[in-house]
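hey so i finally got around to running the thing on that chain from the lab meeting. sorry it took forever, my laptop kept dying and i had to restart like 3 times. anyway pasting the input first so we r on the same page abt which one it is
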Amino acid sequence: MSYSIDLRKRVLKYVEENNNMFEASIVFDINYNTVRNWYKAYTEENRLEPKEAYRQEPYKLNWEELGAFVEANPDLEQQEYAAHFGVSRGQIGKVLKKLGITRKKKALPIRNKMRKKSQNFMKSLRE
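ok and heres what got predicted. didnt touch it at all, straight out
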């Protein structure tokens, strides 16, 4: 929740009347950094309103398709899933976690064999 525009105006008016920001923070019981940020935004951007909250873009990844693809290709790595769906590896990891799909570790000889298989798969994607 942000402070009202009216309060911001009163604090900035108090600062502009040759009072310092520290005094304003004490008088209005607001953190000094908040007063400083308001003053900076007002003097540099002529803005009193708070910044708009960050809104995350919705996932462009179909979770059901990913779940089915992982079941069909359980030995691929996250970067390969990401390349297949055209998203980042981080997004794949977050969705897999939400789907409850965990990483299965394999013995070293099996991992080396799977790595070769995944490299072949990546080559086929590039072609």
